[in-house]
Amino acid sequence: MEHCEALWGESTVDGFRITDIKHMKVTVEKNQVDYDDDEVQRHRAAAAKVGKTFLGTVHTHPGKSFDTCGSTHDHHVASKDGELLMGVVVLYKDPKGSKFVMQSDWWIPQPKIEVIYAED
After folding, report:
1. Are 86 and 72 in contact, with CB atoms under 8 Å apart?
2. Rounded CA gap, 19 and 8, in Å?
3. Which residue in 5, 9, 40, 61 could disulfide with 66, CB within 3.0 to 4.6 Å?
4. How far is Cα 46 from Cα 55, in angstroms, rounded to an integer?
């Protein structure tokens, strides 16, 4: 199962400072996690109320067969919602032992680019 959390903090001169990771109300399916626009707006307002910025989200990918790259869908949704930062985490139990393996990467969400070909 995937999980998703909101990131609050501030923009800095050369990046972001995450100060809070907050629970998001999400709809979870086997290999997908979704949140609605109202949830993003709730986090924007709650963060602003305490002098912080809603920076974006961090979500998991469900197993070691996945990587820490955001999918095209992940990027488009995060960009549409105005996220400044998107994190992807893969967490799984090492099959050779009892330790967990965690990998993560951080992304600047990319908008969908629509290409329209002109006809002659």
Report:
1. no
2. 6
3. 61
4. 12
Determine the straight-line distance between the first and last CA of the chain, rounded to whole angstroms.
Answer: 49
Query: What span, in angstroms and rounded, lies between the C-alpha atoms of 75 and 86?
Result: 8
pLDDT tens per residue, range 68-120: 888 888 888 899 889 999 999 998 888 888 888 888 999 999 888 888 888 86
Cα angle at 24 between 6 and 53, to 5 degrees?
Answer: 30
Q: CA 90, CA 69: separation in Å to the nearest integer?
A: 10
Are 76 and 112 in contact by the 8 Å Cβ rule? The answer is yes
CA dihedral for 78, 83, 84, 90, sign (positive or negative): negative
What is the CATH code for 4-107? 3.40.140.10
